[in-house]
Amino acid sequence: MINDNVFTLLKDRSNKLFIDNEFINLKTRDAIRYNDVNNFEKKLIEDIKNNKHFLFCCDSAKTVTNIYNKLIIELSEEEKKNYILITRKYNPIKDNENKIYDFNINFKNKFVFYSPTITYGVDINFENSQNVYLYMKGKSLLPSGIY
Questions:
Q1: DSSP assignment of 110-127, as one string?
Q2: pTM of the predicted model, to two decimals?
Q3: Cβ of 133: how many Cβ atoms within 10 Å?
Q4: Poorest-confidence range of 27-41, 92-106, 122-136?
């Protein structure tokens, strides 16, 4: 996280490189808070029915796994290929011989559910915008970490 202390540290350095962030400004995007897990799950189901792919991050591996299993239970094996679950126990990135190296390719047109296993270092920039869902129980991450 960048704050004034970072700029103070860099101020007297001779070799500096500042990069302008050219990504979409999300300040105009609405964030919706669901206080009822049933309403939250209904929104996920609605996106799935409308084939609106999303990323779903949760600070609890147990919770994300339960929701994932609930949503895929009636799907065919072929349909399940469009759903990716990533937790410490189930990690296709580590377990697969053909490791996922480019999330923009491997997660494109997928419904991705993940826990704190991939907190930092993931940069996903799809051409078309999609919803991102956060489910926080306050168990393992600070808000800045899950963001």
A1: -EEEE-GGG-SS-----S
A2: 0.70
A3: 17
A4: 92-106
